[in-house]
Amino acid sequence: MLLLITSTEPRHESFVLAVDVGTTSIRCHVYDKEAQIRGSCTDKVVPLYPEVGHVEMDPGEIWRGFITVVKGAVQDAGVQMRQIEALGISTQRATFTTWDRKTGVPFHNFISWQDQRAADLVKSWNRSCTMKVSLCLLYFLTRQKRLLAASLIVFSTQHVTFRLAWALRHYTQVRQAVAEGKCCFGTIDTWLLFKLTKGQVHATDYSNASATGIFDSYQMCWSGFLCSLVSLPLSIFPKVENTGHDFGSTDPSIFGVPIPIMSMADQQAAMFGECCFDVGDVKITMGTGTFMNINTEISLCPLVGLYPVVGWKIGSEVVYLAEGNAADTGTAIKWAQELELFSDVKDTSAMAYSVSDSDGVCFVPSFSGLQAPLNDPKACASLMGLKPSTTKSHLVRAILESVAFRNNQLYETMLRETRIPITKIRVDGGVSSNDFVMQLTADLFGRKVTRPQHLEMSCLGAAFVAGLGIGYWRTREELKKLQSTDKMFLPRGANKEGACSRSREYIPVLQSWERALRRSMNWYKP
């Protein structure tokens, strides 16, 4: 006689966990099958400013914050760690440290992507005619597109390249560790992975690597040519893996159970979270900085404004993006709040709408210099056109307008350099919650701009990639069906497709702002 025994233990629901390590906060969300957030936890990131132009972060505090938000989000969801099927990680870009391969102890703080210590090195490199002529000659002889790309590239202080060269020059411990073969280099994702696996895995993914300025996106490897030019030892670099990849599991001693780490990504994860899978799809992430990406599918030669990055590599598929960014979006709004121009960020949109214009005030948001398409690390932040009649509302409007104006600069650069027809524009990040900024952006673009219900798209993108890797979700079409929209911003006078001719109302204001922009450039002399 066959006796069937059925377990009475209830089947546990499973979840995907994702962590986004941003510039001002670390966020963790627990996602269910419908991509709904079941639990969350947030911790602050405190930047350090040891010298003028230096921006750093404490590795110990980043690690403590990471552990805190993971445990806090799981607790908030009311679930157990054993119910977490996979972990995805997205991080702020190009913030790095170096550490001892044996002990895991960092040699110095994280040097932030906002850091300006290598500004003079960057300026010198970009002006180097010898290097550019040599690369052009090599391209003429070989017709290799990557050499043409290298000759055209404009480096910025946000690229790791010259900040890492600076660290090798100024930190004796780092040079000694390199000589002894025990130095590891890594951006935040790499260092967290090293810590989570107790030193077993030293790796990054293609999206993070491609944003460092040291990666050859044509050959899909670290650029030995560039490393030799700026004296960077290849031995310190991590292995580069797919964005969706089994990076190993967290050590059981950390969370009580091993959790598979199934994705790592730069902010490009937001493109995946927004389901921008097709050529011409545009995503604008507006957090501490603004990152505007367009899906180009194939790699582009970098021109004056944009920079080619890997969006993701999953299996054999590589998706390329063209990117422009502005460093001081949320930074400008936070600065205004600290000056007590307003008490609650939610009030800023109403304040801006309460006045018909900025009373001629122009704000230039360049605390960390100006990025694409101007690329001036010596530019200063400035307020111009102040009058006795200027009120707090005028100042707030000028600051919010500057965010939309920088969006417009990036958008025009993108249209001019890629010549790719735009299919859709989606926004995310904390600043995208501001209706004034989003409506003005739509008016300036002459295009419909869509905002999702949940703004942490980098987190969702990391979760989507991790979930696809374990079969939690099966197809990208399934992911598209999980998308939710909060609001669509239509340009004034839009047709049924949400498009119209670009607003001319703001042309005089834009011209005044561009004049202020030029006066802010090259302010800080070497």
UniProtKB/TrEMBL annotation:
GO cellular component assignments: mitochondrion
Mitochondrion recorded as keyword: no
EC class (word): transferase
Gene Ontology MF term list: ATP binding; glycerol kinase activity
Keyword Translocase applies: no
Pathway listed: Polyol metabolism; glycerol degradation via glycerol kinase pathway; sn-glycerol 3-phosphate from glycerol: step 1/1
Residue span(s) of domain Carbohydrate kinase FGGY N-terminal: 16-273
Coiled coil: none
Subcellular location: Cytoplasm
Main location as per UniProt: cytoplasm
GO BP: any one term: glycerol catabolic process
Keywords, ordered alphabetically: ATP-binding, Cytoplasm, Glycerol metabolism, Kinase, Nucleotide-binding, Transferase
Carbohydrate kinase FGGY C-terminal domain ranges (all copies): 283-467
EC number: 2.7.1.30
Record function comment: Skin-specific kinase that plays a key role in glycerol metabolism, catalyzing its phosphorylation to produce sn-glycerol 3-phosphate. Involved in skin-specific regulation of sterol regulatory element-binding protein (SREBP) processing and lipid biosynthesis.
The protein, known as: Glycerol kinase 5
Naturally occurring in which organism (per UniProt): Sparus aurata (Gilthead sea bream)
